[in-house]
Write a structure and sequence with these properties.
- The protein is mainly alpha-helical and 130 residues long.
- It is 69% helix and 0% strand.
- It is built from 4 helices and no strands.
- Helix 3 packs across helix 4.
- The longest helix is centred in the N-terminal third of the chain and has 34 residues.
- The N and C termini lie far apart (78 Å).
């Protein structure tokens, strides 16, 4: 038979009870938040008009270097068409393959020009802030 005495630590016991209760409350609150988020998402319909859809399609566009669309905010179709006409005039593609290569060159130059504008703008901001 053991002669060890059991010492009841009332403060530790109460602290554990409080911690367990707070953990249960936190879990319930997380479940409630998740449910409210799901219910709110069901009411969300997103943009409905073509203009709203066009605007929301640009929401994640930060700089446009990896954009799927060729023309991004701040650029115009007219400027792209001008560059394209310059390339067609300069290279005068005679075959479908040459036209395809000229189109690829035009798009690459367009994106390179964009990257250079971003680089210049970023450099200007860094110089201003230092």
């Amino acid at each position: 038979m053991s002669t060890e005495t059991f010492v009841f630590d009332r403060e530790a016991f109460l602290n554990k009870c409080v911690a367990d209760h707070e953990a249960e409350l936190a879990a319930e609150q997380a479940e409630d938040r998740a449910l409210l988020n799901r219910l709110n998402a069901m009411r969300s319909t997103g943009p409905r008009t073509p203009a709203g859809k066009a605007t929301s399609s640009q929401n994640r566009l930060a700089h446009g270097l990896c954009a799927t669309s060729l023309i991004v905010r701040g650029e115009t179709q007219e400027d792209f068409d001008l560059l394209r006409n310059e390339m067609l005039t300069a290279y005068r593609p005679a075959t479908p393959e040459e036209k395809m290569l000229t189109d690829q060159l035009t798009e690459s130059q367009w994106r390179l020009n964009r990257a250079r504008r971003i680089e210049t703008h970023t450099h200007d901001i860094l110089m201003r802030d230092t």
